[in-house]
Design brief:
This protein is of the alpha+beta class and about 550 residues long. Helices cover about 35% and strands about 25% of the residues. It is built from 20 helices and 20 strands. The chain has a 20-stranded antiparallel sheet, with helices on both faces. Helix 3 packs antiparallel against helix 20, helix 15 runs antiparallel to helix 16 and helix 16 runs antiparallel to helix 17. It is elongated, with a radius of gyration of 31 Å.
Length: about 550
């Protein structure tokens, strides 16, 4: 009886705790706190931890000291951002530097951009009240105007010359910071659960998040591609410069997850108009199984089309081929030079007609590839340092998997005709048989080919062609609409050596403040900054309504 009496208060207390917990209002998801109208939304599970990791990283130190940052710091985009930073400092009364960023960085944090040209944004972070009240921003609130929205006061100030606005508030356990008053007022109304449209309720956001692959994410980026593609700033500064290709997508999402030894990214890009799904990806999987272990770069396409394959072969294996000049309505100008006909100009031959570089020499090859139904194409490239330890030699091989057997004799004849038109003025194409059934073209250029049934491999190195061709019977890997890989640690030293040799004649004096060479200095320094990345791969699937992309960055031990 005594035991029953003892348990009764405990049971009552547990019941009260359960009832209290059920009565509490569920916390609002972060996207539901942002007013509608954003063009992109970025959320971090723990922004403060990510910021601390970046600040103490070797990548940050190397990038700030490298030529890539040096070139970026002189760019128009950087100068515009610096001007905006100065204007915001005048409006806020505190400099928007790393100290301020560290003080407002919370655990679960998010930022939404509403106008990328005017840099109008709203930032919300879960920050303990004691820390929020100790920030330099909060201590300057006496210089701001106090206003009210929802159930909370907020503070706003405008810099009259630039019309920049700074506004902030603290509600619940969240610190809010905005560059437009309506944004912070709207967020406070959403926190008060007023009926206000939010980012979470907009179709572009809802559709993207619903299509996202399951799994944890340290970072999530959601963007309204329809709106972004219309902005001048995005079209001007988007580094990939592929805005026309992106117009087919209405919105997209990218989740980033850090795991031991890897950084994984999961993306979805929703199409505005659905296309036919790629149902069978096994052909690409067969080619992916044939990639040599020492390949530096590979790319595989499903159903590439004969014209795509022909263009790739021309550009990769016949670099001397040049396109016809655009038509002109004006007569060509005559260059006046004192060296014409003198001993300085002894390289010009007058007893032989010049190489035509005629693209018609590729007609037979293009016709053969256009007539074939190519299920998948693989491009493999790598570089090697030559025996002299000075020059770097790049090599490429292209594998084509068709749905019917190739006519090897006809392909060799078409390749020989192309080689004659690019490298010679005479019919000199002679093929000899090498190791592994690979046929090599003897001539001024280097060309190799191997065919077996539906497999066709063409390259500028017999060794690379054989390396791919010999793996044709391996068990297929999982397929994809597109897949690519880059072995960064393997190829970066050769890339630097190659580009330094190319840039050496016009290498500027760094002491003179000249712009660093793009490849051997600017781009190479970015590669060195990312030296912890051993390799990167991407796999794309296309169900028609969207693209699903999985990117993996493997880190060095």
């Amino acid at each position: 009886m005594r035991r029953v009496l003892l348990l009764s208060p405990i049971a009552a207390a547990l019941a009260a705790m359960i009832f209290w917990a059920l009565a509490q209002t569920a916390p609002q998801p972060m996207p539901s706190l942002f007013p509608a109208g954003a063009v992109l939304y970025l959320e971090a599970k723990d922004f403060a931890a990510l910021l601390a990791d970046w600040n103490g990283s070797a990548e940050k130190r190397d990038w700030l000291a490298g030529a890539n940052y040096d070139a970026f710091s002189r760019s128009q985009l950087f100068l515009k951002l610096a001007d905006a930073q100065t204007e915001f400092a005048s409006a806020a009364g505190v400099p928007p530097d790393y100290a301020l960023l560290t003080s407002v960085a919370g655990s679960n944090s998010a930022i939404a951009m509403y106008d990328i040209g005017k840099l109008e944004f709203l930032y919300i972070a879960h920050v303990p009240s004691a820390r929020a009240m100790n920030t330099a921003l909060w201590k300057t609130r006496g210089t701001y105007q106090t206003r009210h929205a929802g159930n909370t006061d907020y503070f706003v100030k405008e810099d009259k010359p630039s019309h920049r606005v700074a506004a902030f508030a603290y509600a619940g356990d969240s610190l809010l910071l905005a560059t437009r008053e309506e944004l912070i007022a709207g967020a406070l109304r959403l926190m008060a659960r007023e009926s206000v449209p939010s980012v979470a309720s907009e179709p572009w956001f809802a559709n993207s998040t619903q299509a996202a692959a399951p799994g944890p994410a340290d970072l999530r980026l959601v963007y309204n591609m329809t709106s972004l593609a219309r902005t001048f700033q995005f079209r001007s500064h988007w580094v990939q410069a592929n805005v026309p290709e992106l117009r087919q997508y209405s919105s997209g999402l990218a989740d980033l997850e850090r795991v031991r030894g890897e950084i994984r990214e999961r993306r979805v890009l929703l199409r505005a108009t659905p296309e036919e799904a790629t149902e069978n990806e096994t052909a690409a999987g067969q080619l992916l199984a044939a990639i040599p272990d020492d390949a530096g770069l590979y790319r595989a396409w499903l159903n590439p089309g004969g014209s795509h394959a022909a263009q790739w072969i021309e550009e990769k294996l016949f670099p001397a081929a040049t396109a016809s000049a655009p038509p002109s309505k004006f007569a060509p100008a005559v260059a006046e030079t004192a060296d014409a006909g003198s001993e300085v100009d002894l390289e010009t031959r007058i007893d032989e007609r010049p190489l035509s570089g005629n693209r018609d020499s590729f007609k037979a090859l293009r016709d053969r590839l256009a007539a074939a139904h190519i299920d998948a194409m693989l491009d493999v490239s790598s570089t090697t340092v030559q025996a002299d330890q000075v020059f770097v030699q790049p090599h490429s091989a292209i594998a084509l998997l068709a749905n019917t057997a190739w006519n090897a004799d006809a392909i060799r004849a078409a390749l020989g005709e192309a080689a004659e038109g690019v490298w010679s003025n005479a019919s000199t194409a002679v093929w000899r048989t090498g190791a592994g059934g690979v046929r090599e073209l003897e001539g001024l250029g280097k060309l190799a080919m191997a065919a077996d049934g539906k497999w066709l491999v063409i390259g500028d190195s017999a060794e690379m062609v054989n390396a791919v061709f010999s793996r044709r019977t391996r068990t297929a890997l999982p397929g994809a609409a597109y897949a690519a890989g880059w072995r960064h640690a393997r190829e970066l030293p050769n890339f630097e050596r190659l580009t330094k040799l190319i840039d050496f004649p016009q290498m500027p004096d760094p002491q003179a403040g000249a712009e660093p060479p793009f490849f051997s200095s600017n781009l190479a320094s970015l590669g060195r900054t990312l030296k912890r990345i051993d390799a990167a791969t991407i796999v794309v699937h296309d169900p028609g309504t969207m693209l699903r992309e999985s990117v993996v960055y493997k880190l060095t031990p």
